[in-house]
Write a structure and sequence with these properties.
9 helices; six-stranded antiparallel sheet; 983 residues; single chain
């Protein structure tokens, strides 16, 4: 009987199949997800006694969100479309969050507690204009409760409760541009004040109930105006005249308009240049910025101006908030090195301060750019203040009682480039107490896992197991691991700040604001746009740290002066900075390194001159040896021209520069601009590894892949098809794709897709290219694949030729030789539109590749390359099935388990990048947009390792049980054999 039970146990274990799945408690072990909102531009506090205290914000990433005032966590958020820019934000009826977006075309109401959309109204208009929103401040809900919206030249009256448009009025007929809507609760009239042609001040008086014009006045100001009108009260506004040297007080009384100009030089003795009035909302006050200072003015006695205070340019002030009846307060922020000085002032008595606080601040956050003030009543009935500040690096901080309550690194919502860097090598030698502590923790963990496997663990034990998994010391260590899972992700944000993120848990290891160094230079504040590996030491990994090259410009145009910064990847310290230098139009990393393992880079300026970096004699020698093998291409999308370039000789300039080389045109392809417009290009990754060039088919034939890093995929459409999908009929639209050899300019392949248009997303890997487009005739998205094979080597299968050296695989290859290639292609329907596409990379290129697709739903889908095999047939043979060819279908399957992001979303997904791990089966995936997501992916499963969740304790118990079982059955067998002999 015992033998039967033992054999049954062995049979069950041997016939069990492993199942690939993810349990709820495994989420976060090999991936992480971070949510952000972006740079805040509007903020409204909601601190009523009932309910949670929160602040409602809108950001430059078109996000509207509700944040917890205690911890800064996100209660709820909504990401609007990339073109749905939020213009205004406010709270209506005490329970709705109202947003005005798309230039005043869309107004929405969201539920304040949960963020659910209550209603949406789309407002029509005749022309683009500024957007204004006026909401009544009474909290009574009724049919007559209206909000007033100005946008696209129209004023709309919209019902607060349901978003119904009650009436609308066109004010754009005379070129009128409203600068302020004024309405007093309970009044029957709405006033719209603005400018006509920058010289006339216009005032409209409208009936609140039906929008009828009750009065209209306009008056000419001979000097004209520069900028906007700023209203300091309901009947007074200030502006700067067209010359920028006079302040003009505009007074409204009984429908009449009066002007009172005053020269700025009367108040600022050293004034020069022009003055600019900064946007602010402070009763009877405004702020004037000049080249040397920021000055606060107060309007007194109807139209007289008085200087209240003068500050340097590093001052930021908030809008005023009501404190008590007849008194308002605002906060002013001044910065001094590593601290900020916060001063709360009363509008009634500017000389006295309601609060003064000094707060230590990391100088890597930069200057304060926006500040929002909120007040509360302390237990002693005095006023306390909360201050929300937005800094130069797009971070968000809440200050209260001289302390930083919480901070958010929302600059990570605007990443523009990513590179991976190895962590330091772990040095030998560990303290004995650490070893003992580690052993005890490991034993404790194994005991808890055994209890979990036997299903006898308590809820507290399960929580402890999950906590130990998420805080695994091996996962978050700051040293390299043998599998290459632990790395640093060096990311560059739009604010010009570098972050180093640990792949183990996504924490910020260090950050560096690059703009801080250039602030006092002639460059001003540069915009950094590109990140490259500068030094990656392999032979000197213990002595040298890897470093990154960050490239920027002093302006927005391609001919602006360039700046370079070299940053230590481990410590986040700037090692060197160069600039301002020549313009930087294109960056070409070269596949060469010097003795210090610094990578050579070519920077192309606007005059098509190439500059070599690093500027050393050794780098110059390496470069000159490879001068004839360096080629690149450029694309002129406006003219539909593709050019190939090479290098010729030292630049012809006044001062000899050996590190500057003139470029030469090698070839040019001019496409007919009346029928073809370039919309997309794609090339192979320069770091991609290809394991083998040969591909063995089911018929035991050999296909040789055409492997070249000089291939370019190019897609063009008819000019009418450049617009959005559906903007052209299928008969008037077509798409043409090319495969071009960029050294010689030879077109290897051309195919036309009639009735198709973009947008086109494409990836190029090994010898194949996959691209995604829209088929107008079928009204569906398609994904097509092209594979390129080398026919010149198709007959070279003789081993004797290979031994004798007569095989052409041993002969040198040149891009100018005649190419004999064959193409295999196929297209399939695909359900989703695509935001980004990338292919997985592994360290040796052995593992099957997957195409990672960023879908319109902001998720990442892993699509097996076998589904995109052009050799798929409807009825594959048995040999083809054994090769792995899948039967042909017209559509690509969407398997729910193939979503890398599981049930999560990467809001505002912009791009996906992949990095190889040291383990061949695994690739590292990083997706970024407003959110960040990182995961480890094994396209062919983890065939070369055991997973981290492998239960070693259960394996040990099983082995012990088997040994005991074998020993017991052996004893029973011996006893039975002895008994049989005695019979």
């Amino acid at each position: 009987m015992a033998i039967r039970v033992f054999m049954l146990l062995v049979f069950i274990i041997s016939t069990s199949r492993p199942i690939s799945s993810l349990y709820e408690d495994q989420v976060g072990l090999a991936d992480w997800h971070r949510q952000y909102i972006g740079k805040v531009k509007h903020a409204v506090f909601h601190t009523q006694k009932a309910g949670r205290k929160r602040v409602i914000v809108s950001t430059e990433e078109n996000v509207v969100a509700s944040l917890d005032l205690r911890h800064g966590e996100i209660f709820w958020r909504h990401v609007l479309g990339p073109k749905d820019v939020i213009d205004q934000l406010d709270i209506a009826l005490g329970k709705y969050v109202v947003t005005l977006s798309s230039g005043g075309s869309v107004v929405r109401a969201w539920g304040l507690p949960d963020g659910q959309m209550v209603w949406e109204s789309r407002l029509q208009g005749s022309r683009s204009s500024r957007s204004l929103l006026v909401i009544q401040k009474n909290l009574k809900v009724g049919k007559d409760s209206l909000m007033f919206v100005y946008g696209n030249g129209y004023i709309h009256a919209v019902a607060d409760a349901d978003g119904e448009v009650i009436w609308k009025k066109d004010l754009a007929s005379e070129g009128f541009e409203a600068h302020q809507l004024m309405y007093a609760d309970g009044s029957d009239a709405l006033y719209a004040v603005g400018l006509i042609d920058s010289s006339w001040v216009g005032v409209y008086q409208l009936n609140v109930k039906n929008g009828a014009v009750l009065g209209h006045e306009k008056i000419l100001f001979p000097g004209g105006f520069s900028g906007d009108l700023l209203f300091v009260s309901n009947d007074k506004a200030v502006a700067v005249d067209a010359s920028g040297t006079n302040l003009v007080v505009i007074r409204l009384r009984n429908g009449q308009v009066y002007f009172h100009p005053t020269p700025i030089a009367e108040f600022i003795l050293d004034f020069s240049g022009v003055g600019i009035i900064l946007p602010s909302k402070i009763p009877e006050m405004f702020i004037l910025r000049t080249e040397t200072s920021v000055t606060f003015f107060k309007v007194v006695n109807e139209d007289e101006l008085r200087v209240v205070e003068k500050f340097d340019l590093a001052s930021t002030i908030s809008d005023s908030i009501p404190l008590s009846e007849g008194d308002d307060a605002c906060v002013m922020i001044q910065q001094d090195d590593d601290k900020i000085i916060l001063t709360v002032k009363s509008n009634n008595d500017w000389t006295s301060n309601l609060a003064v606080e000094k707060i230590q601040m990391d100088h890597q956050r930069g200057q304060v750019q926006k500040v929002f003030l909120n007040s509360y009543v302390r237990t002693d009935r005095s006023n306390g203040f909360r201050v929300l500040i937005v800094l130069e690096d797009h971070s968000l901080l809440l200050l209260q009682q001289g302390e930083i309550v919480w901070s958010r690194e929302d600059g990570l919502a605007s990443i523009i480039d990513v590179k991976a860097s190895e962590l330091p090598i772990e040095k030998d030698g560990v303290a004995v107490d650490k070893v003992e502590h580690g052993l005890l923790e490991r034993l404790k963990g194994h005991l808890l896992k055994v209890k979990g496997s036997l299903m006898i663990a308590t809820p507290d034990d399960l929580a402890t197991i999950q906590k130990m998994r998420l805080s695994s010391s091996d996962k978050t260590k700051m040293t390299r691991d043998r599998n290459g899972f632990r790395k640093l992700l060096i990311v560059l944000t739009r604010a010009g700040k570098l972050f180093a993120l640990h792949t183990g848990d996504g924490r910020i290891v260090w950050s560096l604001l690059l703009n801080s160094h250039w602030r006092s230079k002639t460059c001003g504040i540069p915009s950094f746009f590109s990140l490259h590996q500068w030094q990656d030491p392999h032979h000197h990994a213990l002595d040298e740290n890897p470093s990154m090259l960050v490239i920027g410009r002093c302006g927005d145009s391609l001919d602006s002066a360039g700046v370079l910064s070299i940053v230590d990847a481990y410590r986040g310290k700037e090692l060197d900075h160069i600039g301002p230098i020549h313009s930087i139009a294109q960056v070409i990393p070269l596949p060469f390194t010097d003795s210090l393992e610094r990578r050579l880079h070519l920077l192309l300026d606007a005059n098509q001159q190439a500059h070599l970096y690093p500027r050393t004699v050794e780098a110059l020698g390496i470069f000159q040896q490879e001068l004839g093998n360096i080629y690149w291409y450029s694309v002129d999308r406006d003219e539909s021209i593709l050019r190939g370039h090479g290098l010729k000789k030292t630049c012809l300039i006044e001062v000899t520069d050996n590190f500057c080389v003139d470029a030469r045109n090698v070839w040019t392809i001019v496409l007919p601009s009346d029928t073809e417009k370039i919309i997309a290009t794609a090339t192979r990754s320069p770091n991609e590894v290809v394991h083998t060039q040969a591909k063995v088919t089911a018929e035991h034939d050999v296909l040789y892949k055409h492997i070249s890093k000089n291939l370019l995929f190019l897609a063009t459409v008819t000019p009418k098809a450049e617009g959005p999908i559906g903007s052209v009929t299928p008969d008037a639209s077509s798409m043409v794709v090319y495969v071009i050899e960029t050294v010689s300019g030879r077109i290897l392949h051309r195919v036309t897709h009639p009735g198709s248009q973009g947008p086109v997303h494409a990836i190029f890997s090994e010898n194949w290219v996959v691209y995604h487009f829209f088929n107008l005739k079928a009204h569906r998205y398609e994904m097509a694949v092209i594979e390129i094979y080398d026919q010149a080597r198709a007959e070279n299968k003789d081993m004797l030729k290979l031994v004798l050296g007569a095989h052409n695989l041993t002969s040198p290859v040149t891009a100018y030789s005649r190419l004999e290639v064959s193409m295999k292609s196929q297209s399939y329907f695909f359900t989703h539109s695509v935001k980004a596409m990338v292919v997985t990379q592994t360290i040796k290129g052995i593992t099957s590749r997957q195409v990672l697709v960023g879908t319109v739903g902001d998720q990442v889908l892993a699509l097996d390359k076998r589904f995109l095999d052009p050799r798929r047939t409807v009825n594959p043979t048995q040999a083809e099935k054994e090769e792995g060819i899948i039967p042909l279908t017209d559509s690509l399957p969407l398997i729910p388990q193939s979503y890398v992001t599981h049930a999560l979303k990467v809001e505002g997904l912009r791009d996906i990048v992949t990095f190889p791990a040291k383990l061949e089966s695994t690739t590292l995936v990083f997706a970024y947009g407003i959110d960040l997501f990182f995961a480890r992916l094994a396209p062919s499963k983890t065939y070369d390792s055991l997973t981290e969740e492998f239960n070693y304790a259960l394996l040990l118990i099983t082995i012990v049980a088997l040994v005991v079982g074998i020993f017991v059955t052996w004893i029973w067998s011996e006893k039975k054999e002895l008994q049989d002999k005695w019979r």
